[in-house]
Amino acid sequence: TSVEVATPSRTRDIVKKYGFEFKKSLGQNFLIDQNILHKIVSAAELDSTKGALEIGPGIGALTQHLAQAAGKVTAVEIDNRLIPILRDTLAEEDNVEVIHADVLKLDLKELFAERFSDVSGVSVVANLPYYVTTPILMKLLEDRLPLENIVVMIQKEVADRMAAKPGGKDYGSLSVAVQYYCVPSIVCIVPHTVFIPQPNVDSAVIKLSLRDKPAVETPDEAHFFRVVQSSFAQRRKTLMNNLSSWLGKDQRETLTTMLEQIGIDPGRRGETLSLDEFAKLSTTLHQAGL
Ligand code: SAM
Protein backbone atom coordinates (compact mmCIF):
# COMPACT_ATOMS: atom_id res chain seq x y z
CA THR A 1 0.00 0.00 0.00
CA SER A 2 1.08 3.56 -0.67
CA VAL A 3 2.08 6.35 1.69
CA GLU A 4 -0.86 8.23 3.19
CA VAL A 5 -1.48 11.48 1.27
CA ALA A 6 -3.88 13.03 3.77
CA THR A 7 -1.50 14.35 6.39
CA PRO A 8 -0.45 17.99 6.68
CA SER A 9 3.24 17.23 6.13
CA ARG A 10 2.81 14.84 3.20
CA THR A 11 0.34 17.19 1.48
CA ARG A 12 2.74 20.12 1.90
CA ASP A 13 5.59 17.98 0.56
CA ILE A 14 3.64 17.00 -2.55
CA VAL A 15 2.51 20.57 -3.17
CA LYS A 16 6.11 21.76 -2.84
CA LYS A 17 7.64 18.97 -4.91
CA TYR A 18 5.41 19.79 -7.89
CA GLY A 19 5.28 23.54 -7.28
CA PHE A 20 1.51 23.20 -7.23
CA GLU A 21 -0.50 26.40 -6.74
CA PHE A 22 -4.06 26.06 -5.47
CA LYS A 23 -6.77 27.45 -7.69
CA LYS A 24 -9.59 28.94 -5.70
CA SER A 25 -11.71 29.07 -8.84
CA LEU A 26 -11.62 25.24 -8.98
CA GLY A 27 -12.63 24.85 -5.34
CA GLN A 28 -9.31 23.28 -4.40
CA ASN A 29 -9.29 22.54 -0.67
CA PHE A 30 -7.47 19.30 0.02
CA LEU A 31 -8.27 17.02 2.96
CA ILE A 32 -5.51 16.35 5.46
CA ASP A 33 -7.41 14.38 8.12
CA GLN A 34 -7.72 10.62 8.11
CA ASN A 35 -10.57 10.56 10.63
CA ILE A 36 -12.79 12.47 8.25
CA LEU A 37 -11.71 10.27 5.36
CA HIS A 38 -12.67 7.16 7.31
CA LYS A 39 -16.07 8.64 8.11
CA ILE A 40 -16.68 9.48 4.45
CA VAL A 41 -15.60 6.09 3.16
CA SER A 42 -17.44 4.04 5.77
CA ALA A 43 -20.68 5.96 5.11
CA ALA A 44 -20.54 4.77 1.49
CA GLU A 45 -20.70 1.11 2.60
CA LEU A 46 -18.24 -0.11 0.00
CA ASP A 47 -16.71 -3.54 -0.37
CA SER A 48 -14.60 -5.32 -2.99
CA THR A 49 -17.65 -6.01 -5.19
CA LYS A 50 -18.51 -2.29 -5.46
CA GLY A 51 -17.44 0.60 -7.62
CA ALA A 52 -16.74 4.16 -6.56
CA LEU A 53 -16.84 7.28 -8.69
CA GLU A 54 -14.83 10.13 -7.24
CA ILE A 55 -15.26 13.67 -8.53
CA GLY A 56 -12.20 15.89 -8.07
CA PRO A 57 -9.49 13.61 -6.59
CA GLY A 58 -7.04 16.50 -6.08
CA ILE A 59 -3.77 14.85 -5.07
CA GLY A 60 -5.47 11.58 -4.16
CA ALA A 61 -6.19 11.86 -0.41
CA LEU A 62 -9.63 10.26 -0.64
CA THR A 63 -8.83 8.20 -3.73
CA GLN A 64 -6.30 6.09 -1.81
CA HIS A 65 -8.89 5.21 0.81
CA LEU A 66 -11.47 4.40 -1.85
CA ALA A 67 -8.98 2.13 -3.62
CA GLN A 68 -8.67 0.12 -0.41
CA ALA A 69 -12.41 -0.03 0.27
CA ALA A 70 -13.90 -0.63 -3.20
CA GLY A 71 -13.25 -3.08 -6.02
CA LYS A 72 -12.86 -0.34 -8.60
CA VAL A 73 -12.43 3.41 -8.51
CA THR A 74 -12.82 5.96 -11.27
CA ALA A 75 -11.72 9.48 -10.42
CA VAL A 76 -12.56 12.46 -12.64
CA GLU A 77 -10.28 15.50 -12.30
CA ILE A 78 -10.56 18.72 -14.32
CA ASP A 79 -7.13 20.19 -13.51
CA ASN A 80 -4.45 18.80 -15.83
CA ARG A 81 -1.68 19.84 -13.39
CA LEU A 82 -2.97 17.20 -10.98
CA ILE A 83 -2.85 14.28 -13.40
CA PRO A 84 0.93 13.58 -13.08
CA ILE A 85 0.71 14.04 -9.31
CA LEU A 86 -2.09 11.47 -9.11
CA ARG A 87 -0.05 9.08 -11.23
CA ASP A 88 2.62 9.38 -8.56
CA THR A 89 0.50 9.24 -5.39
CA LEU A 90 -1.69 6.42 -6.72
CA ALA A 91 1.15 4.39 -8.28
CA GLU A 92 0.52 1.45 -5.94
CA GLU A 93 -3.24 1.31 -6.54
CA ASP A 94 -4.04 -0.96 -9.45
CA ASN A 95 -7.83 -0.59 -9.27
CA VAL A 96 -7.95 3.16 -9.88
CA GLU A 97 -8.52 4.91 -13.18
CA VAL A 98 -8.05 8.67 -13.41
CA ILE A 99 -9.92 10.56 -16.10
CA HIS A 100 -8.92 14.10 -17.02
CA ALA A 101 -12.26 15.81 -17.65
CA ASP A 102 -14.84 18.28 -16.43
CA VAL A 103 -17.42 16.03 -14.80
CA LEU A 104 -20.21 18.34 -15.97
CA LYS A 105 -19.28 17.66 -19.59
CA LEU A 106 -18.78 13.94 -19.25
CA ASP A 107 -21.25 11.37 -20.54
CA LEU A 108 -21.71 9.58 -17.22
CA LYS A 109 -24.05 6.90 -18.59
CA GLU A 110 -21.35 5.87 -21.02
CA LEU A 111 -18.72 5.96 -18.27
CA PHE A 112 -20.89 3.74 -16.07
CA ALA A 113 -21.45 1.27 -18.92
CA GLU A 114 -17.73 1.08 -19.64
CA ARG A 115 -16.43 1.08 -16.15
CA PHE A 116 -19.07 -0.23 -13.77
CA SER A 117 -21.02 -2.89 -15.69
CA ASP A 118 -19.47 -5.68 -13.61
CA VAL A 119 -19.82 -4.31 -10.08
CA SER A 120 -22.65 -5.01 -7.63
CA GLY A 121 -23.28 -1.32 -6.92
CA VAL A 122 -21.78 2.12 -7.37
CA SER A 123 -21.32 5.02 -4.96
CA VAL A 124 -20.26 8.56 -5.73
CA VAL A 125 -17.81 9.63 -3.06
CA ALA A 126 -16.20 13.06 -3.16
CA ASN A 127 -14.99 16.16 -1.46
CA LEU A 128 -16.77 18.33 -4.00
CA PRO A 129 -15.60 21.65 -5.42
CA TYR A 130 -18.09 23.96 -3.69
CA TYR A 131 -18.60 26.30 -6.66
CA VAL A 132 -20.41 23.53 -8.58
CA THR A 133 -21.92 21.31 -5.87
CA THR A 134 -25.54 21.70 -6.95
CA PRO A 135 -25.01 21.30 -10.72
CA ILE A 136 -22.91 18.18 -10.11
CA LEU A 137 -25.43 16.57 -7.76
CA MET A 138 -28.39 17.46 -9.97
CA LYS A 139 -26.61 15.97 -12.96
CA LEU A 140 -25.96 12.73 -11.03
CA LEU A 141 -29.60 12.51 -9.99
CA GLU A 142 -31.28 13.65 -13.19
CA ASP A 143 -29.17 11.31 -15.32
CA ARG A 144 -30.80 8.47 -13.34
CA LEU A 145 -27.48 6.72 -12.92
CA PRO A 146 -27.64 3.32 -11.23
CA LEU A 147 -26.25 4.58 -7.92
CA GLU A 148 -26.63 3.12 -4.42
CA ASN A 149 -25.58 6.25 -2.62
CA ILE A 150 -23.75 9.54 -2.85
CA VAL A 151 -21.49 10.56 0.03
CA VAL A 152 -20.07 14.03 -0.40
CA MET A 153 -18.38 16.80 1.50
CA ILE A 154 -20.18 20.03 0.69
CA GLN A 155 -20.80 23.44 2.16
CA LYS A 156 -22.74 22.96 5.43
CA GLU A 157 -25.37 25.47 4.41
CA VAL A 158 -26.12 23.48 1.25
CA ALA A 159 -26.22 20.20 3.21
CA ASP A 160 -28.76 21.75 5.57
CA ARG A 161 -30.92 22.81 2.64
CA MET A 162 -30.77 19.35 1.07
CA ALA A 163 -31.80 17.62 4.30
CA ALA A 164 -34.38 20.23 5.42
CA LYS A 165 -37.93 19.24 6.35
CA PRO A 166 -40.95 21.41 5.39
CA GLY A 167 -41.59 24.51 7.46
CA GLY A 168 -38.16 25.98 8.01
CA LYS A 169 -36.08 28.59 6.24
CA ASP A 170 -33.74 25.95 4.79
CA TYR A 171 -36.54 24.09 3.00
CA GLY A 172 -36.79 24.99 -0.68
CA SER A 173 -36.75 23.61 -4.20
CA LEU A 174 -33.32 22.04 -3.60
CA SER A 175 -34.71 20.07 -0.62
CA VAL A 176 -37.62 18.84 -2.74
CA ALA A 177 -35.41 17.92 -5.72
CA VAL A 178 -32.94 15.98 -3.57
CA GLN A 179 -35.60 14.27 -1.47
CA TYR A 180 -37.56 13.30 -4.58
CA TYR A 181 -34.67 11.02 -5.59
CA CYS A 182 -32.94 10.29 -2.25
CA VAL A 183 -33.12 9.95 1.49
CA PRO A 184 -30.58 12.46 2.85
CA SER A 185 -28.72 12.23 6.13
CA ILE A 186 -25.93 14.38 7.50
CA VAL A 187 -22.94 12.21 8.37
CA CYS A 188 -20.87 14.83 10.18
CA ILE A 189 -20.06 18.51 10.42
CA VAL A 190 -16.49 19.26 9.45
CA PRO A 191 -14.21 21.99 10.83
CA HIS A 192 -12.10 24.28 8.58
CA THR A 193 -8.91 22.86 10.01
CA VAL A 194 -9.03 19.58 8.08
CA PHE A 195 -8.28 21.26 4.75
CA ILE A 196 -5.32 22.88 3.03
CA PRO A 197 -5.99 25.68 2.24
CA GLN A 198 -8.84 26.23 4.70
CA PRO A 199 -12.17 27.18 3.05
CA ASN A 200 -13.99 30.18 4.48
CA VAL A 201 -17.31 28.35 4.82
CA ASP A 202 -18.39 25.52 7.13
CA SER A 203 -18.52 22.04 5.66
CA ALA A 204 -20.53 18.88 6.19
CA VAL A 205 -20.55 15.35 4.85
CA ILE A 206 -23.96 14.33 3.55
CA LYS A 207 -25.13 10.90 2.49
CA LEU A 208 -27.85 10.62 -0.13
CA SER A 209 -29.29 7.11 -0.33
CA LEU A 210 -30.96 6.66 -3.70
CA ARG A 211 -34.59 5.58 -3.60
CA ASP A 212 -35.70 2.66 -5.79
CA LYS A 213 -38.34 4.95 -7.20
CA PRO A 214 -39.07 8.65 -6.66
CA ALA A 215 -40.61 9.64 -3.33
CA VAL A 216 -43.92 10.64 -4.93
CA GLU A 217 -45.83 9.76 -8.08
CA THR A 218 -46.59 12.53 -10.54
CA PRO A 219 -48.20 12.49 -13.98
CA ASP A 220 -45.39 14.63 -15.39
CA GLU A 221 -42.08 15.12 -13.63
CA ALA A 222 -41.19 18.38 -15.39
CA HIS A 223 -44.57 19.79 -14.39
CA PHE A 224 -44.03 18.71 -10.77
CA PHE A 225 -40.73 20.60 -10.65
CA ARG A 226 -42.31 23.65 -12.29
CA VAL A 227 -44.97 23.69 -9.57
CA VAL A 228 -42.27 23.43 -6.91
CA GLN A 229 -40.15 26.20 -8.45
CA SER A 230 -43.18 28.47 -8.79
CA SER A 231 -44.31 27.84 -5.22
CA PHE A 232 -40.93 28.97 -3.91
CA ALA A 233 -40.50 31.81 -6.41
CA GLN A 234 -41.00 34.49 -3.77
CA ARG A 235 -40.60 32.96 -0.37
CA ARG A 236 -42.51 35.63 1.52
CA LYS A 237 -45.58 35.30 -0.68
CA THR A 238 -48.42 32.85 -0.10
CA LEU A 239 -48.81 29.77 -2.23
CA MET A 240 -51.80 31.43 -3.91
CA ASN A 241 -49.83 34.53 -4.83
CA ASN A 242 -46.91 32.55 -6.19
CA LEU A 243 -49.16 30.22 -8.18
CA SER A 244 -51.19 33.07 -9.63
CA SER A 245 -48.04 34.95 -10.63
CA TRP A 246 -47.11 31.84 -12.56
CA LEU A 247 -50.49 30.85 -14.03
CA GLY A 248 -52.12 34.28 -14.31
CA LYS A 249 -54.30 36.38 -12.02
CA ASP A 250 -57.42 35.19 -13.85
CA GLN A 251 -56.82 31.70 -12.43
CA ARG A 252 -57.21 32.75 -8.79
CA GLU A 253 -60.73 31.42 -8.35
CA THR A 254 -59.99 28.13 -10.06
CA LEU A 255 -56.86 27.79 -7.96
CA THR A 256 -58.73 28.47 -4.73
CA THR A 257 -61.26 25.74 -5.51
CA MET A 258 -58.56 23.27 -6.47
CA LEU A 259 -56.44 23.93 -3.41
CA GLU A 260 -59.47 23.52 -1.18
CA GLN A 261 -60.36 20.25 -2.87
CA ILE A 262 -56.96 18.79 -2.04
CA GLY A 263 -56.97 20.19 1.48
CA ILE A 264 -54.28 22.83 1.06
CA ASP A 265 -54.97 26.28 2.50
CA PRO A 266 -54.21 28.85 -0.26
CA GLY A 267 -52.82 31.17 2.43
CA ARG A 268 -49.98 28.80 3.28
CA ARG A 269 -46.45 29.45 2.06
CA GLY A 270 -44.69 27.13 -0.35
CA GLU A 271 -42.12 26.31 2.29
CA THR A 272 -44.73 24.47 4.38
CA LEU A 273 -45.73 21.97 1.67
CA SER A 274 -44.50 18.38 1.86
CA LEU A 275 -43.46 16.41 -1.23
CA ASP A 276 -46.80 14.61 -1.08
CA GLU A 277 -48.66 17.91 -1.12
CA PHE A 278 -46.61 19.21 -4.06
CA ALA A 279 -47.38 15.96 -5.90
CA LYS A 280 -51.11 16.32 -5.22
CA LEU A 281 -51.00 19.94 -6.34
CA SER A 282 -49.12 19.08 -9.52
CA THR A 283 -51.50 16.22 -10.33
CA THR A 284 -54.57 18.43 -9.89
CA LEU A 285 -53.18 21.33 -11.91
CA HIS A 286 -51.96 18.98 -14.62
CA GLN A 287 -55.37 17.32 -14.91
CA ALA A 288 -56.93 20.75 -15.32
CA GLY A 289 -54.46 21.53 -18.11
CA LEU A 290 -52.71 24.19 -16.04
N1 SAM B 1 -10.51 14.98 -3.27
C1 SAM B 1 -9.45 15.90 -2.92
C2 SAM B 1 -9.35 16.00 -1.43
O1 SAM B 1 -10.32 15.69 -0.76
O2 SAM B 1 -8.30 16.38 -0.93
C3 SAM B 1 -9.66 17.28 -3.55
C4 SAM B 1 -10.98 17.93 -3.25
S1 SAM B 1 -11.12 19.62 -3.80
C5 SAM B 1 -12.36 20.21 -2.69
C6 SAM B 1 -12.06 19.57 -5.32
C7 SAM B 1 -11.37 18.98 -6.52
O3 SAM B 1 -12.27 18.98 -7.63
C8 SAM B 1 -10.13 19.71 -7.00
O4 SAM B 1 -9.10 18.80 -7.22
C9 SAM B 1 -10.56 20.38 -8.31
O5 SAM B 1 -9.52 20.56 -9.24
C10 SAM B 1 -11.60 19.39 -8.82
N2 SAM B 1 -12.62 19.94 -9.73
C11 SAM B 1 -13.14 21.19 -9.72
N3 SAM B 1 -14.09 21.32 -10.67
C12 SAM B 1 -14.20 20.11 -11.28
C13 SAM B 1 -15.00 19.62 -12.36
N4 SAM B 1 -15.90 20.40 -12.97
N5 SAM B 1 -14.81 18.34 -12.77
C14 SAM B 1 -13.91 17.54 -12.14
N6 SAM B 1 -13.14 17.95 -11.12
C15 SAM B 1 -13.27 19.23 -10.68
Automatic annotation (TrEMBL):
Residues annotated as domain Ribosomal RNA adenine methylase transferase N-terminal: 36-212
Entry coiled-coil feature ranges: none
GO molecular function terms listed in the Swiss-Prot or TrEMBL record: 16S rRNA (adenine(1518)-N(6)/adenine(1519)-N(6))-dimethyltransferase activity
Cellular compartment(s): Cytoplasm
PROSITE patterns with a match to the protein in the record: RRNA_A_DIMETH, SAM_RNA_A_N6_MT
Function according to Swiss-Prot or TrEMBL: Specifically dimethylates two adjacent adenosines (A1518 and A1519) in the loop of a conserved hairpin near the 3'-end of 16S rRNA in the 30S particle. May play a critical role in biogenesis of 30S subunits.
Protein name: Ribosomal RNA small subunit methyltransferase A
